[in-house]
Amino acid sequence: MVVFTCNACGEAVKKAQVEKHVNICRNCQCLSCMDCGKDFWGDDYKEHVKCVSEDQKYGGKGFEAKTNKGDAKQQEWIQKIHELMKKPNISPKVRNILEQMRVFDNIPRKKVKFQNWIKNSLRISDSNLQDQVWDVFSEATRNVSLTGGTTL
Fold first, then answer.
1. Contacts of 138 (CB under 8 A, 6+ apart)
2. Interhelix angle for 127-146 vs 111-121, to 10°?
3. In which element (H, E) is residue 11 found?
4. Within 13 Å of residue 69, how many CA atoms lie on the same side as its CB?
5. What are the residues facing 39 on neighbouring strands?
6. Using CA atoms, how far apart are residues 118 and 129, in angstroms rounded to an integer?
7. Gap between the Cα atoms of 41 and 29, Å rounded
8. Closest C-alpha to 134, from 102, 79, 100, 97
9. Is the pLDDT of residue 148 over 50?
10. How far apart are alpha carbons 27 and 9 in whole angstroms?
């Protein structure tokens, strides 16, 4: 989980609460990641979805991180969502949901879990809209597998 420090008031803020904090803290213009120390101006923090792990931070001089297969699949899935947002033929409602999903890094890759997640995390209970968003994803993953890429 990515945690930021407000450079105006010094408060530690989880990524999900940054929007709320920015509205409360009037002088908040820059946030710093607690793990990597990088500064993020404006809404640049939204792109900071993955940071250094504890092992990398405290692992010593010659530390080599092991690649996690599940994490690689998840990052590929997140990348697919970012690519989908660029397509012109997506309805405004679905595009709005995709915009909201940008800040999350734990989006399920299976339909039933995805529908449960979108209902609980984004508070979207309209099953028709959930199906539309899922159909956009499944279409994108089908296109990847048809072109010889890896399936998700």
1. 111
2. 130
3. none
4. 2
5. 32
6. 10
7. 6
8. 97
9. no
10. 8
Of 35, 140, 126, which Cα lies nearest the Cα of 82?
140
Radius of gyration of the chain (CA): 18
The pLDDT score that the predictor gives to residue 58 is 61
Tokens encoding 37: 């120390």
Rounded to whole angstroms, how far apart are CA atoms 49 and 15?
A: 9
Q: What would the pLDDT profile of 38-67 be if each residue is shown by its tens digit?
A: 888 887 877 777 676 556 666 666 666 666
Task: Return the closest-CA partner of residue 32 out of 48, 17, 20.
Answer: 48
Count of helix runs (H) and strand runs (E) in the chain? 6, 4
pLDDT digits (tens, 9 = 90+) for 77-123: 777 777 777 777 778 888 888 788 877 777 787 888 988 988 888 88
Contact call for residues 40 and 4 (beta carbons, < 8 A): yes
Pairing between strand 30-33 and 12-14? unpaired
Write the single-letter amino acid at 77.
W
N- to C-terminal Cα separation, the chain: 23
